[in-house]
Amino acid sequence: MILTEITARDIPDAWFQCIYQILDKGFSYKIQQGSFVGNKRLEFDSITIHIKHPETRPFEPDIPVSYGIPNPVTEGYIDSYLPYLMTSEKQPNEDYTYGERIEPQLPYFIDLLKNTPNTNQAILQVARPEDFKLNDPPCLRHIDMRIREGKLIFYTYFRSWDLWGGFPANLGAIQLLKEHMASAIGVEPGPFICYSKGLHIYSYVWELAKLRTGKTIKEFKGEEV
Q: How many CB atoms lie within 10 A of CB 14?
C-alpha cells in the first residue's frame, strides 16, 4: 500500500499534482459496483492533500489551450453547483443531495464556532447509517471543521472521489461554503486538509491525463493500460 501526501498552493495546483502522481502510484482495477461498472479505475491507495490557499481563483484546472484538452470543469459550473451543496433543493429522481443534509446543520455550527471557537466537535455529517441501502451512497461523507489562528479550516473525507472532474468542482463549491461560514462566524477562511481512500480517474480519461502531464507511463502496478 502506498500512502500519498501532497502539499499544494491552491486547488488547480492540487489537481495537477494528484493527476501527475496517480499515474505513478495508482492501482488499476475493474469496477464491480457503482459508476461505470465493467470499466476500469486508476486509484490511489490512500491520499492526504493539504491545500494552503484554496481561496485563490480560478478554481478550475489549468489546461493550456495548446494542449487541445477540454477543461473538465466548465466556466460557471461551480457557481451553479453551489445550491446542490448549500440548499435543500432536490430533483424528483434524486435519492438525496449534499445540500439537503448540510443546510439544516449550518446555523447550529455557525453559532457553535462563533461562541466556542476552540471546540473540536464541529463536523458537518453528510453520511447516514441507512445509506448502505442506496445504489450510490454519498461520496462526500463529512466535513470536519475547526478554527486555528483566526481561520476556519475544513477537513474533508471522500469515500470515493472522481479526480478528473469531481475534485476541482467539489472543492471549489466547498470553498465557497467555507467562505460563507467564515464570514458568518467572523473569521477568515483557511486551508483544506482532504483525505480519501478512493481518489481515482476513470479509464476514459487516462490518455487525457497523460497528455496534460506529459507522462508516457504504460503500466500501473503490473496492469496494461
A: 24
Long-range contacts at 85-88 (CB < 8 A, ≥ 24 apart): 85/173, 85/174, 85/176, 85/177, 86/176, 86/177, 86/180
Residue 22 DSSP SS3: helix
CA dist., res. 197 & res. 45, Å (int): 6
pLDDT in tens, 62-71: 999 999 999 9
**Average of pLDDT values for 150-166?**
98
Question: CA-CA distances (angstroms) from residue 60 to 13, 32, 73?
Answer: 10, 30, 6
Contact call for residues 176 and 84 (beta carbons, < 8 A): no
* Residue spans per domain, the chain: 3-224
Residue pLDDT, tens place only, 9-62 = 999 999 999 999 999 999 999 999 999 999 999 999 999 999 999 999 999 999
CATH T-level topology, domain 3-224: Thymidylate Synthase; Chain A (3.30.572)
The DSSP symbol for 205 reads: G
Tell me what pLDDT residue 93 has.
87
Q: Would you mind telling me the total number of residues written for the chain in this entry?
A: 225
